[in-house]
């Protein structure tokens, strides 16, 4: 979205126009939901956090700065809500029991999109993302999946560009390792399509 | 380019092609309706600043003071009752 279009949209949001909200909602909702679902690994929790994110936008609409970058604003709110949720999980006894149970049952590290993934590679990527520690996962999701500029992603995460670079690098290596472990290593992950292995290539990442 | 760089570039490209997903249509409309209602409420408050000040005063002062007062009165009553029972 061009900065002019975005500024006009923000101005309409400040005036409380629901049509402006709908434009923003339809544009960013799928991206935000995918981000939250991959971050939380739980569809219902992602839906709750998604709702809270949009309600925050509605609450803060009249006070938005004229030059607000809506994507960065929304992803920052979504990410902060997820952080609060994780903190709450740690102190809530019932939730801790639930976490222990899911870990025991072996469903802890499955992505909510595993079942709907179209192909082997997509499933493997979703699984590899689910295995990443949260701080690496959020960096990879913002930069590699959402194609956000690294400087913007660093602002969303509240870290320095150097810290972001390190998290990204570690996350990518772990994903490449996981893909290699599943036989989708070098030569097979090209352009998002699965290619037959090249002669002489190895699966080790 | 080193092989590790090539590999992470491939991983990045594949990650960039992961599809976005969406919530169920029913949930999507539920969130939209709630947000519209909140947006209209905020716009109304922005049009009438005195109403916004009343809402802020109620949320930050009146309601907490009322809850604290009722809680304190109940605790005082309960304490008094227990003291009376123990004194018998």
Can you give a write-up of this model?
The complex is a heterodimer of chains A (205) and B (88). In chain A, 69% of the residues lie in helices and 2% in strands. Chain A contains 9 helices and 2 strands; from the N terminus they run H-H-H-H-H-H-H-H-H-E-E. In chain A, strand 1 and strand 2 form a beta hairpin. Chain A is globular and about 50 Å long. Chain B is an all-alpha fold and 88 residues long. Chain B has 3 helices and no strands. The longest helix of chain B has 39 residues. Chain B is elongated and about 85 Å long. The termini of chain B are far apart. The mean pLDDT of chain B is 88.
Uncertain segments of chain B: none
**What best-fitting shape of chain B do the alpha-carbon axes yield?**
elongated
Q: What's the total number of strands of chain A?
A: 2
Distinct helical segment count of chain A: 9
CATH first level of the largest domain in chain A: which class? Mainly Alpha
CATH fold-level topology of the largest domain in chain A = Rna Polymerase Sigma Factor, Chain: A
Query: Approximately what portion of the residues of chain A adopt beta-strand conformation?
Result: under 5%
Describe the structure concisely for a colleague.
The complex is a heterodimer of chains A (205) and B (88). Chain A has 205 residues and is mostly helical.
Set out the fold topology.
The complex is a heterodimer of chains A (205) and B (88).
Chain A: H1 3-14, H2 18-40, H3 43-60, H4 70-91, H5 93-105, H6 120-131, H7 134-145, H8 150-157, H9 161-181, E1 189-190, E2 193-194
Antiparallel strand pairs in A: 1-2
Helix pairs in contact in A: 1-2, 2-3, 2-4, 3-4, 4-8, 6-9, 7-8, 7-9, 8-9
Chain B: H1 3-16, H2 25-47, H3 49-87
Features:
heterodimer; A: 205 residues; mainly alpha; Rna Polymerase Sigma Factor, Chain: A; Arc Repressor Mutant, subunit A; 2 domains; 2 strands; B: 88 residues; 3 helices; elongated
